[in-house]
């Protein structure tokens, strides 16, 4: 499972957890403005917005999982297994393969509004990247500091939803996730009133009782509720350190520990990495399952007018700061 979230203080932050039982060989990758994107049906883009994100690089091609561009737009793909449906290429539409969708949007859109306009003309195709890397069944969140949308390509076509909570997980489809939040109207960060009835003198014997009823399990519907509640009630200072710290705490509410989600054959889904991008400053922060120290890559420290990908393999293994 995976979870994505947005957060605004002075700057705008966008990130996700990537939960799975194995890593493809993830790297933080910067695609500078003149890195050529060769789209299967849409030709080649020679000059575009610079992008930084998490990707698996196959044959020199960055296959992004989540990324932001230099204009402050962010986008992430999360599993949508059994519901995602991609099509054959058709004439009269912009045919973009599923694995190209992130660079297609981030290379040319500066805002959610511009992305929405492009998606109106879009047909996401079922073209695999290669025989070894078949099509991934995903849906996407696209966000800037003014709002977010969710994009789902299903049997009946592409759906674009306003995403007023700025979070996303996996199944069921977004409409159902949003409807399900109605069931949690009563949860609160405040101490609850005693409305039980009958004049029973019920006690608030613990702090945090306003949140009772929030689901604690790792299913995608439960994580959606939990991360939405955490994000909507989040309070932090506005500095970079305070904002980034708070962002990791928001996604910490849906962290997956090894052992709790058994996917069979002694394999467990875990939070392989958590990312937090400052979309205003072009910085990609991340932690990994084995490394809780925050690592950062700043796209503006690279030559953004270059033609070559810049690749940073993830820093793995705990970095313990000994005090004696
Ligand atoms: C496995 C990842 C999603 C994690 C997730 O959502 N887990 C939830 C599990 S569950 O179902 O809800 O149980 C997805 C997110 C982005 C995906 C990758 C990107 O789409 C880029 C390429 C696309 C290629 O078609 C396949 C390899 C790949 C490199 C993908 C591998 C894999 O499907 C990734 C890494």
From TrEMBL:
Positions of the Choloylglycine hydrolase/NAAA C-terminal domain: 2-311
Metabolic or biological pathway, per its Swiss-Prot or TrEMBL entry: Lipid metabolism; bile acid biosynthesis
List keywords of the entry alphabetically: Hydrolase, Lipid metabolism
Entry's InterPro entries? CBAH, CBAH/NAAA_C, Ntn_hydrolases_N, Peptidase_C59
A Pfam short name: CBAH
Q: Which CDD domains match?
A: Ntn_PVA (cd00542)
In short, the EC number is 3.5.1.24
Sorted alphabetically, the Gene Ontology BP terms of this entry are: lipid metabolic process
> GO terms for molecular function, please?
choloylglycine hydrolase activity
Q: Which reaction does it catalyse?
A: taurodeoxycholate + H2O = deoxycholate + taurine; cholate + taurine = taurocholate + H2O
Q: Which family does it belong to?
A: Belongs to the peptidase C59 family.
According to UniProt, the name of this protein is choloylglycine hydrolase
Taxonomic classification = Bacteria, Bacillati, Bacillota, Clostridia, Lachnospirales
